[in-house]
């Protein structure tokens, strides 16, 4: 087994095919889960990102091998030096441009696509490792990345729902209803830190709404309790927690 791995570390046609195929597979495994969640970057985006990063590293290795062999005369004539990491270093800049396109601002001061952006960066780095033949790191990092993307999200949401700080979005009938809403918040032992009024269009009418940042009481830090108390108010049309 070790002999096969060592042969795949050599720069040869079978090794190149294996590295590109491995990059495609690890990109597909990560991208499949993102596609299932209908993320901004899906299966093909992750696959192509990983393949492109691996190819960038392979081009670097190819030039390095050529400069040691057929292109030696050029090195001796010009005296140039070659850094094998030069091409792969540019992947970070390129992937930053691609990742920025997956980050979008949605309604109510929320931002979507941050996980897709950093996932693309991690996938590109995996592709570089595939191209370099660092197979041990590829498989270890792939498992850790998949675990983080697929299994940590429920734990992250559960953690955020236990925080004392909470941001909510409330739609109501009239601007005068703000007093009743803030009173209900204080009755729950929560403190109102920030309030931003908006206008939400519903059925052709622009009705008032607000984004509120609260800090819940230590003894009553239930997010569902504060949401339920506001939803029971006759003046409130809808209320939801904003989780980034």
Mind summarizing the main beta sheet? 4 strands, antiparallel
Structural class: alpha+beta
Number of strands: 6
Strand sequence of the main sheet, in spatial order?
Answer: 4-5-3-6
Order of helices and strands: HHHHHEEHHEHEEHE
Low-confidence stretches: none
Q: What number of domains?
A: 2
| Percentage beta strand | 15-25%
Radius of gyration: 26 Å
**Silhouette:** elongated
Count of helix runs? 9
On the 0-100 scale, what is the average pLDDT?
A: 81
Q: Give the termini distance in whole angstroms.
A: 46 Å
Proportion of helical residues: 55-70%
List the helices and strands and how they pair.
Elements: H1 2-9, H2 13-36, H3 43-68, H4 72-78, H5 86-102, E1 104-106, E2 110-112, H6 114-132, H7 135-160, E3 165-172, H8 178-187, E4 191-202, E5 205-215, H9 223-231, E6 236-241
Antiparallel strand pairs: 1-2, 3-5, 3-6, 4-5
Helix pairs in contact: 2-3, 2-6, 2-7, 3-5, 3-6, 5-6, 6-7
Can you characterise this structure?
With 244 residues, the chain is of the alpha+beta class. The strands form two sheets. Strands 4-5-3-6 form a four-stranded antiparallel beta sheet, with helices on one face. A two-stranded antiparallel sheet has the order 1-2. Helix 2 packs antiparallel against helix 6. It folds into two domains: 2-159, no CATH class; 165-241, Ribosomal protein S6/Translation elongation factor EF1B (Alpha-Beta Plaits), CATH 3.30.70.60. 60% of the residues lie in helices and 18% in strands. It has helices at 2-9, 13-36, 43-68, 72-78, 86-102, 114-132, 135-160, 178-187, 223-231, and strands at 104-106, 110-112, 165-172, 191-202, 205-215, 236-241.
């Amino acid at each position: 087994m070790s002999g096969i791995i060592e042969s795949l570390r050599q720069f040869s046609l079978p090794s190149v095919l294996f590295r590109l195929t491995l990059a495609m597979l690890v990109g597909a495994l990560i991208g499949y889960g993102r596609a299932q969640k209908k993320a901004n970057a899906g299966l093909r985006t992750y696959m192509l990102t990983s393949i492109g990063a691996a190819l960038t590293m392979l081009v670097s290795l190819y030039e390095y091998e050529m400069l040691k062999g057929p292109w030696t005369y050029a090195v001796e004539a010009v005296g140039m030096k070659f850094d094998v990491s030069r091409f792969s270093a540019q992947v970070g800049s390129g992937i930053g441009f691609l990742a920025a396109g997956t980050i979008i601002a949605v309604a109510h001061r929320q931002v979507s696509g941050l996980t897709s952006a950093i996932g693309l960066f991690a996938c590109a780095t995996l592709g570089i490792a595939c191209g370099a033949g660092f197979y041990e790191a590829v498989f270890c990092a792939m498992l850790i990345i998949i675990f983080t993307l697929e299994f940590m999200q429920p734990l992250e949401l559960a953690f955020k729902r236990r925080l004392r700080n909470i941001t909510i979005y409330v739609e109501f009938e009239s601007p005068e209803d703000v007093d009743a809403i803030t009173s209900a918040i204080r009755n729950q032992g929560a403190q109102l830190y920030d309030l931003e009024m908006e206008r939400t269009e519903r059925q052709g009418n622009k009705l008032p709404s607000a984004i509120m940042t609260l800090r819940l009481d230590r003894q009553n830090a239930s997010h569902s309790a504060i949401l339920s108390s506001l939803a029971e108010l006759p003046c409130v049309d809808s209320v939801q927690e904003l989780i980034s």
